[in-house]
Amino acid sequence: MMRRVQLSPNVRDSAYANPNLGFAWLRLAAAFLVILNHSAGLAWYRGATIFPGAWQVSPGELALAVVFAMSGYQISASWRRDPSWWRFWARRLLRLLPPLFVVTVATVLVVGPLYTSWTQVDYWTHPQTWRYLVGTSLILLLQHRLPGVFETNPYPYSVNGAIWTLPLEVVGYSLVFVLGLLAMLKVSRSIVLPIVVVGLIVINLVLDSTESVRSILSVPTESAAYFMMPFSLGMLLYEFRDRIPLRWSLAAALMFAWLLLRAEPMGHYLLALAAAYGAVTVAHRWPKRWERSWEWVAGSYGTYLWGFLIQQVLAEAGVRDPWVLTALAIPLAYGMGLLSWNLVEKPTQRWRRYLRTPRRKPTNTEREAGPGERVKAGATEPAERYAAP
Q1: What is the pLDDT of residues 289-298, one digit of tens each?
Q2: pTM for the full model?
Q3: Buried (b) or exposed (e) across 272-305, using 16+ Cβ within 10 A?
């Protein structure tokens, strides 16, 4: 059963479900959109899009902007609940690494030997096989190819291309961590966060004027700069959650503005804003009658991790219609996501009992709050087990 947690004082607690449930549903929908977005490139050729190019709409870009915005909001809440540097990173890595390690091991030890065009001896003795296993498990040293695996597929460039975003999650966590440390030094987040958002916009404007693609370790700098915009906007929405109203009309207006101006230079920036505000608004207004649906949407991270790999296997089997590829891959990835949650993520999340926050005395405001009443904004905390990624 999910604990009742009020992350924004702008929404009545009794009227809606726990917002973390809304975030979970949005993450699952985003995972499905990413699978849809990948289908054309995996079924046809690199660079192919599922929708006509003239539409200037990428469901994958929208999905990732929403995911990073939700991460910014939820991870900020996590730090505010317990500003301990080692417990913060322990929780993040405990959430991120176990499912990734399982899919990486399965890729190297099962999928690789089955689908490589090389001899088994050559596959197992090649350094790249073990480089993939170790590097990908460490996130910041991601590898994308295995010897001879899927090399005749329409997209032979990566065995599991979806995992390229995981280093960006670590960048986002680092941003929350650094700002949290600054806050401990009495530097106001209310001042620093708007500066960070403006700084990211400037960085993106500069990068948009250059042609080169750079990366640091496994972090593509241009993508990191862009997706940190919705991430930082999610942080901003959490920081000012007691002042920013969450309204359907404004969320719809921002989305409409993005659709109208998506082909313009400002379209990317509008998408970041619309995704961040829209995701937080939808999550906080999730129907209460769906409160018991958690176990059905808990596997969003596993769905995302397994989706691309499953699509590659289907492409190897000869599926060349992107819509058929999507229709087959989504239920398979969703099933693997549920297995990942129940067999890997849920058991490893129980280890968090060793990371419990030390007990503290309640504040005067908390003592005055009666049963079922909401205390002031700074005293609330997120349900950790329902947090990002």
Answers
A1: 888 888 899 9
A2: 0.88
A3: bbbbbbbbbbbbbbbeeeeeeebeebbbbbbbbb
